[in-house]
Amino acid sequence: MILLSSIINHFETTFLEKYQDVLLPGHKKALRDMKRCRSKQGLHMLASCSDLDCTERVYIPHSCGNRNCPHCQNHENWQWIENQLDKRLPATYYLATFTLPQQLRDLTWKNQKLIYSLMFSCVQDVLKTFTSNDKKLRGSAGFTTVLHTKARNLDFHPHIHVVMPAASINEKSGMWRVKSAGYLFNHKNLAKVFRAKLLEAAVDQGLYVPATTPKDWVVDCRDVGNGDKAFIYLGKYLYKGVIQEKDILRCENGEVTFRYMHAESKAYRTRTVSGEYFLYLLMLHVLPKGFQRTRCYGFLHPCSKKLLKLLQLVMRKPLFFMLKRKKERATITCPRCGKPMNIVKTRIRKPTALLTACLT
User: Both 62 and 177 in a single domain?
Assistant: First the structure.
């Protein structure tokens, strides 16, 4: 397996020289963090054995904690998945995907924070409007949205996934309505309204919309059962970076070869690019600082926890969120006695061999 940090070390200098005009401080920080992640030259944490009879103390390299690093935030990843699974309701779930056309990708890249925010706002508006106007629902919607920016081959491909139950609640009467399985909304109508709202919002913000922007956009909407597989699929891309190191096959002759799963054939394909362009592909998907990739709306919003728990109780899904065991962080075991170790200090420099000898 080829480490991402080794690729960054090898191509970082030439990459920064070649793409310095398009790089933001967040891109450089992501590179710096991933290069030093769990390295012996970086910061360490000191762990001490919990057994009083054992005096073992070890220094462990720190993880970088960057959400673009393939090594880090595995616990946060599963924590998000479990939180979403805990909020499920007895209804058929749908996975809707709102995609920007290729003609708007350059505009989006140059105005990432603004366009991404407009995408979230327009998707929210579209789904709430369709739910309130639907003859069988006629109420307030609840859904979870996740922003993805990559295609399977790492190209820039911004789109928003939505996991949504085919259900609604009337805020005045408290009536809960559920739609029968098999159909939620017409995907062509969703695409037309999403296109109109987003282009109008972009023009209002003073952005120039290319004349080549197509009239027909793509929105996919499919039945995903109880939603568990959809949440697990989306959760994998929140904190684990855009590529796993096991998918990096070769790094030789100034080029990097990686594999990806082709959407239509469901078979692995390979792509070979220069080392500098490979790092550029990774940086395409580093979000602006502080930008929230996932958001919940309606009765799934964090401010609607009481309403959600009430719905779960009324529909005989009691205390599921309390009975389900949460995934715990991995424990550090003592190399001498095998018992759990406690973290004593964090973000410290590991003493050199000479200093350690003097202290002992």
Answer: no
CA distances from 92 to 175, 182, 246, 307, 320 (A): 18, 9, 35, 19, 18
Is pLDDT of 31 > 70?
yes
pTM of the model: 0.88
In a domain, 260, yes or no: no
Angle subtended by helix axes 25-36 and 4-19, to nearest 10: 160
DSSP state of 293: S
Give DSSP secondary structure letters for 19-31.
Answer: HTTT--HHHHHHH
| Position 263 in a domain | no
Beta bridge partners of 221: 96
> In 3-state terms, what secondary structure has residue 177?
strand
Q: Can you tell me whether residue 68 is helix, strand or coil?
A: coil
User: Residue type for 156, please?
Assistant: F
What secondary structure does DSSP assign to 93-140, as a single string? Answer: EEEEEEE--GGGHHHHHHTHHHHHHHHHHHHHHHHHHHHHH-TTT-SB
Q: Provide the CATH number for the domain around residue 111.
A: 3.40.1310
Predicted confidence band of residue 353 (pLDDT cuts 50, 70, 90): low
Residue 257: inside a domain: no
